[in-house]
Design goal:
By secondary structure, this protein is mainly α. It contains ten helices and no strands.
Amino acid sequence: MIPSKQTLENNEKRGSYRSEVAAHEPRNIACLVTYQVVARIGWIFKTETVVMPAVLDACIASGMLRGFLPVLNRIGTSLFPLVVAPLVSRTKSIRWLLVGTTIGLSICFAVLSVAWSCLLNDHPFFLAIIFLGTYGLFSAINGCNQLLVATLQGRLISAGRRGRVLVVSVTSGSVFAIIAAFVALGPWLQEPDGFVKIFAATSFFFFAAAVVPLFFKESENLFSAESRRASEAVRPHSFWQVLSHDSSLARLAVVAASF
């Protein structure tokens, strides 16, 4: 069967795209590792299992309010990526979206730092509500951010090197994060205004991480039209319809959501 002209053009575009990606891959690997390391340092200052519950207890010691934390986290990191995924797949450039979401993460903790310094003594309940609302917004932005990082990695890093990128970023990021926690986080937790510094440090490192995507050498997505058609093709078989027709999957989803 003789390939059509459109098929030949698509094959040529794919070959050109892959060559361009391969040429810039070392630079993009360095940028991606740097981004993940800096973000991981910021992340250690907001450890989900230790710092965030302690923050809420410092406002109001309420088990009910503390129980909202994992719920907000799961909703933000699971549902919102589903909503924005079709848009991301059709976007020609991802790095600017990544800059935006990372700045959003930084702003959330800048707001918490200011709110904590102003409201803790006089309005602790109001501060707790602001904290939960900001945490929910942070979780939603973080879910979208994770989707963008994974998409950008898929576009810029070849499959054979993604494992090495993960090993290098996790190993080096963990080392620097542990050092930061030892030097700053421990002492700040003992100070009366320590959470102000913790939130400010988290905001700073997320903002620093937001600068890194500007240095990615990203090739323009040449197949946004194909992505749009694929997105429209799967729309009739949305996950709501899948859940309604597959009782086993629906039960599994309930069990997974319970965790």
